[in-house]
Design goal:
By secondary structure, this protein is an alpha+beta fold. It has 28 helices and 26 strands. The strands form 8 sheets. Strands 2-11-10-3-9 form a 5-stranded mixed sheet. It has a 5-stranded antiparallel sheet with strand order 14-13-12-15-16, with no helix packed on it.
Length: 749
Amino acid sequence: MDTTQIQSDMEQLRRQIRRHDQLYYQEARPQISDREYDALYAQLKQLEEQYPQFITPDSPTQRVSGQPLSGFVSKAHSVPMLSLDNSYNAADILRFHESVRKALPGEQFEYIIEPKVDGVSISLRYENGVFVQALTRGNGREGDDVSANMKTIGSLPLRLNLEAPPPLLEARGEVFMSRAGFARLNQRRQESGEEAFANPRNASAGTLKLLDARLVAQRPLQALFYAQGEMQGVQVESQEELLALFKQAGLMTQSWLRKAKDFEGIQAALEELQKAKASFPYDIDGAVIKLNSFAQRRRLGHTAKAPSWARAYKYEPERAITQVKAISVQVGRSGVLTPVAELEPVFLAGSTIARATLHNEEEIRRKDIRIGDSVVIEKAGEIIPAVVSVQLQQRAPTSLPFDFVAHIEGKCPSCGTAIVRDPQFVAWRCPNLQCPAQNMRRLEYFAARNALDITALGSVVAEALLEKGLVEEPLDLFGLKLPELGSLNLGTEEEPRTFGEKNAAKLLQALEAAKKLPLANWLFAMGIPEVGSTTAFHMGRTHKNLAELASSPKLKLLANLSLINEKAKSGAVGKDTADPELGDLFAWRKPEADSVFQPELLEELLAEGLLRPSQSSGRAYVSDGIGPKAAQSVLDFFAAEIGKNWLARMAELGIDPQGEKAQAETDKNSGASLSGKIFVLTGTLAGMDRNTAAERIRKKGGTVSSAVSGKTDYLVAGENTGAKKSERARQLGVKVIDEQELLKMLGEE
């Protein structure tokens, strides 16, 4: 087929998909079914797989990158992202109005009042209508480049829906989760044994910081826009015109908007919004009042931190008064005991609240919460119920302070073992590793979706296995046999309910598949403190297997990061001598082009993106992906009896999970063209984005790092390259190649 025709067909498919995205997300009037949409998408994806040279950065298929980033890069905002001054009462708003009136004597002016979304600030950059960058607010002057993560948001156009897009448009707004989406996410997390997020804002912020866009794509992020950064080739002179432009371009805006010409009008709008805010599908924590006219905004100007023409008005969180009927104690996976207030049910912020966490013994003592007290509760972040204070005037004279230890008679409520005080945390803990409650939580965690994904092992099955003594710890699952599992009673003796051979076979099949899962999954499944899915991923990608990880020099270095920084900054250790405080972990040396003493292992961690040079004068290096606490926690785990047992049992079962380092060695031995080569990408590439380039390098056996070091083989320089990386490459003698040379090496010339 003629390649010109192929390109034309692919572009036609992209236009169709973009149009249907616009109809679905912006106009809420889809014209085709999900199946028809999926068929269009599949057709485009198939063509792009056949003809990868015709893939465009703004193609709908490019929303999710194939490989995780090694770290985020900070970039300067072309126009600073200022925050807003906050107001909490009518007097503050009146003072704001008077300051505007005095600054515009004799002029007519108009305010726009918009809901203040409780989300995470973001700035998008479009060049000639094509999405090129997304930055977080950061410190207002520079933010993290989270472009790969923002591209996963289906409602976000990768190409603006404008016939003649301007050369440059920066749209600023908020990333958030709807209440319904957040509830579904937390339900999935709890079902898979993960801790629930506290509120949608925390969930959104945490999601934007994930290094793997494939994980981001599984979370219900949305974004809407209300402000501008740098703009070229487009004339907009009011907030109304800006919102109209955004809407026309396919960027989501809020439908609720009110105007006011005076203080009374502002007050009326704020009162109306407060009554309506519960009906919004997402959380709002206030309103933003801003001048409509951009010309008048320019005359008012701004302070060093905030514009003088706008104010944020914060609503008080909704509260209710109820009674503490009892205090129960829950046992977590790690044995930590958490007190929970059992409340007289009360309706608050759209739902009925019957329980509220009390966090720990210190929190109960600080607020002097007692059984029988009338308490004020609120939804912290609009989601999690929390006890704010006690109504002391209503306390009964016979009331006694709550004694946490005496309440449970100093014993674990699940197994009866004497509880101990955790020396590191403000918590009591059950030390019995065979505690039924802990075993139950560990089994659920072990089988979670992003652990070993043993879908047939639900909480009911796990509880039955523990009760019948068939399983005591997670690895016992691999000794189960079909007859005993199939006959497992999930009900009671009076009303038996058998698990069945069909379900048993599914569970055994899932266990067999779990044996072959990679190192990151197994590490997460072990439930080591401080090791979440992101940390497990980074440990998995930088180690060969579990045996190497258990005594990893890399983790020892990261665990001693504060000491590394002291040594690196002071140059206190001489060339090629072992550091007595760190044993023979590594030898320090002084590179010819660098005035800072570094251990040789530092270069490997820099190349793998686990460390990066610090911009702070207080330290030399910052960890990325694996923090010092997580590194020490893993080392402590495998040095302890429990970790040694895991290693021994897994060896007996023939389970040897492999990390990405092992795969890299396999590629090298099989003659992959770029095996062992380390690349760093900088600047803008013409034929593909940097994530795509990184994915193609990895497929050929190469490694992609975020920082240039002595181990870097090639710096791939596109347009607008970073001066620091280029200069660093020159100092270290690293070869600099352009995009065409990279394509030759990839065999894609």
